[in-house]
Specification:
Mean pLDDT: 82
CATH class of the largest domain: Mainly Beta
Shape: elongated
Radius of gyration: 35 Å
Largest sheet: 9 strands, mixed
Structural class: alpha+beta
Helix content: 25-40%
Number of domains: 3
Low-confidence stretches: 1-36, 410-414
Distance between the termini: 30 Å
CATH architecture of the largest domain: Sandwich
Number of helices: 7
Strand content: 25-35%
Number of strands: 26
C-alpha cells in the first residue's frame, strides 16, 4: 500500500454523501421513536379516521401546541357546494357530518386575527377525516428563537456535551489505501453555553497519517499530530467536527480502536465493502449491507450509547492488499534510467565506437521504459512480454562492452 493524504475535496464527496445518506436511512426508526409530534407541521394535514362515521370531518383547534385547546371557536367546513359551521367543544373539536364520499372539503377558522386553512380533505368511502388547525405557530417560534438567543448570550456554565446521534465513523478505500472519516456532531442540549471543564481531545488511532480537518468543521477544532483538540465553551445546539486521515499500513487484518472524550449517543460505523472484507464489533450489534453510489457496497452498523472514555473497537478482516512488485520494478527502472543518463551527460568525449555504444544503451533504456509505462497504464502490447527479456539481455551486453571500451568502467556505473 502507499501513503496518500485523504481526499476531502469534491472527489471524495460522492462516497461520503452516499454513506451519510445510508446512515440516516438506517437511523430513522430509532430517531422516530424519540421525536415527538410537531404541532406546526401537523397543522392542516388530513388524517384518515376509520373509527368516525362515514362522511364525518372532525376539526380540532389548538393554540401553539397539541393539548392547548381553543374552546368555543367557530369553525367552517366547505365542500360539495355548501359550507357547514360549528363550534369547538372542551377538547377543541368540532364535527361535521353528511359529506359524500369522493368529495373534497376545506376547513377554516380565524384565531386572534390569524386565519387558518387546512389542506383539501378528500372524503373517504369508509370512515371520516381528522384535521388539526394550530394557531400562533409563527409567533411561538419567534418567541422561542428570541429566548434561545438570549440564553446563548449568558455566561457558560459547567456541564457535559455529547457526540450526538448523527455522528458517524466511515471507512473507505482511496487508491487502495484505507481512509477514515469522523463526521462528529458535538451536541449541547442546554439553552446556555456549556463548559465541560476542559477541551475535548480526540487521540486518533496509532498509525493515523495526515490528519485533516475538513471543510465544515468548527474553528474551535485544531489538529496537531495525532490529536484533534476541540475547545469549549460549546454553544447550544450542534458544533460540527469533520476529520479525515489515512491508515496506509494496516495489512489484511486491522483492529480499529478509538477512545471518545465525551459520551457517544449512538455509535454508527459505515465500512466500504471490498471483496471479502468483513467488519465485526461487539459494540455494534445491528449490521446491514447496502448499495451506495455506483454499485459500491457499504456495511453499516450501530449500537447502544458509549460513555465518555469508552473505546470503540472495530475489527476489519480480509482487507485488500496492494501488490508492491510493479511499484518496485518501476522504481528500479527509473533509477537505472536516471543513473545511465547522468553518466552519459558527464562522460568525456570518446571514440566513435564508444559513442555508438552509448547511443545503443540510451535506445534500449527508452524502449524498456516505454514497455513499463504501457504495462502500468494497462495498455501492454502482445509482444512486450517477449521483447522485455531480449532488451534486458541486449542492455547487459552493451554495458559490458562499454566497460571494455576506451574510458571503460562506465557500463558498471550505469
Amino acid at each position: 500500500m502507499r501513503h496518500i493524504t485523504p481526499r476531502v475535496g469534491p472527489a471524495a464527496r460522492p462516497a461520503l454523501v452516499a454513506a451519510c445518506l445510508l446512515a440516516l436511512i438506517l437511523a430513522q426508526p430509532a430517531l422516530a421513536q424519540v421525536a415527538g409530534p410537531d404541532a406546526g407541521q401537523m397543522s392542516g394535514i388530513p388524517l384518515p379516521a376509520g373509527e368516525l362515521p362515514d362522511g364525518t370531518i372532525a376539526v380540532r383547534v389548538v393554540r401553539e401546541r397539541m393539548g392547548n385547546n381553543v374552546v368555543g371557536q367557530s369553525v367552517a367546513v366547505t365542500g360539495g357546494g355548501e359550507t357547514k359551521t360549528g363550534t369547538t367543544d372542551e377538547q377543541g373539536r368540532a364535527e361535521f357530518t353528511g359529506f359524500p364520499a369522493g368529495s373534497t372539503v376545506v376547513a377554516t377558522t380565524t384565531v386572534d386575527g390569524e386565519m387558518l386553512v387546512s389542506q383539501e380533505l378528500p372524503v373517504p368511502a369508509r370512515g371520516g377525516v381528522r384535521v388539526a388547525l394550530v394557531a400562533g405557530v409563527s409567533a411561538a417560534a419567534a418567541k422561542e428563537r428570541a429566548a434561545a438567543d438570549a440564553a446563548a448570550q449568558e455566561p457558560a456554565r459547567p456541564g457535559a456535551v455529547v457526540f450526538g446521534g448523527q455522528s458517524r465513523v466511515i471507512f473507505e478505500f482511496q487508491n487502495d489505501v484505507l481512509t477514515v472519516f469522523y463526521l462528529l456532531d458535538i451536541v449541547n442540549n442546554a439553552r446556555t453555553p456549556i463548559d465541560p471543564g476542559g477541551p475535548l481531545d480526540i487521540q486518533l488511532p496509532d498509525g493515523a497519517q495526515s490528519p485533516t480537518l475538513m471543510q465544515g468543521s468548527t474553528t474551535q477544532a485544531t489538529a496537531r499530530g495525532e490529536v484533534v483538540r476541540v475547545t469549549g465553551p460549546f454553544a447550544p445546539g450542534v458544533t460540527s467536527v469533520q476529520i479525515g486521515f489515512s491508515m496506509p499500513d494496516v495489512g489484511r487484518r486491522y483492529t480499529f480502536r478509538q477512545a471518545w472524550p465525551a459520551a457517544f449517543e449512538q455509535p454508527f460505523v459505515a465500512v466500504e465493502k471490498i471483496g471479502a472484507l468483513q467488519m465485526t464489533s461487539a459494540q455494534l450489534p445491528t449490521v446491514e449491507t447496502v448499495n451506495a453510489d455506483g454499485g459500491r457496497l457499504f456495511t453499516l452498523a450501530n449500537g447502544p450509547r458509549l460513555a465518555a472514555g469508552d473505546v470503540l473497537t472495530v475489527t476489519l478482516t480480509d482487507l485488500p492488499v496492494h501488490d508492491m512488485t510493479p511499484r518496485w520494478i518501476a522504481v528500479g527502472l527509473a533509477f537505472v534510467v536516471i543513473a545511465a543518463f547522468l553518466v552519459w551527460g558527464f562522460s568525456p568525449s570518446q571514440k566513435p565506437a564508444r559513442a555508438s555504444l552509448e547511443d545503443e544503451r540510451a535506445r534500449l533504456m527508452r524502449e524498456l521504459v516505454a514497455i513499463e509505462e504501457r504495462r502500468r497504464a494497462g495498455k501492454a502490447k502482445a509482444k512486450d512480454g517477449e521483447r522485455r527479456p531480449a532488451l534486458l539481455a541486449e542492455l547487459e551486453r552493451v554495458l559490458a562492452e562499454l566497460d571494455e571500451a576506451p574510458g571503460g568502467g562506465q557500463g558498471a556505473a550505469a
